[in-house]
Write a structure and sequence with these properties.
Layout lengths: L1 H30 L5 H27 L4 H10 L1 H23 L3
Helix pairs in contact: 1-2
């Protein structure tokens, strides 16, 4: 059981590295530079909060008895609002990227 858990942990960490490594590697590199350290720590904090908050929300919803069927029905009734919200989020992210690249 312990060996299987270790192997599974290594496999999952390797798979997740392709996603999170793209965020963590540049931040760790920035932390090594004293002039970027504060900004890098803020980026790391922001990323971790953005990663953890949805997990906490799902955990709390499950704790209070909300089922996946109920959540699906909730979002199906509000599909237009969900799509609009995602469109606004992606447009905001695109603007942030454009501004940070100096194109605007």
């Amino acid at each position: 059981m312990i060996g299987a858990s270790f192997v599974l942990g290594v496999v999952i960490a390797g798979m997740e590295l392709t996603c999170t490594g793209q965020v963590y590697f540049p931040i760790v590199t920035m932390i090594s530079e004293p002039r970027y350290r504060i900004a890098a720590i803020m980026y790391l904090f922001s990323y971790n909060v953005a990663f953890i908050v949805p997990l906490v929300v799902v955990f709390l919803l499950a704790t209070f008895g909300v089922t996946s069927e109920r959540m699906g029905a909730f979002f199906k009734r509000r599909i237009a609002l969900v799509k609009f919200g995602l469109a606004v989020l992606f447009i905001a992210m695109a603007i942030m990227i454009i501004v940070n690249l100096g194109w605007l």
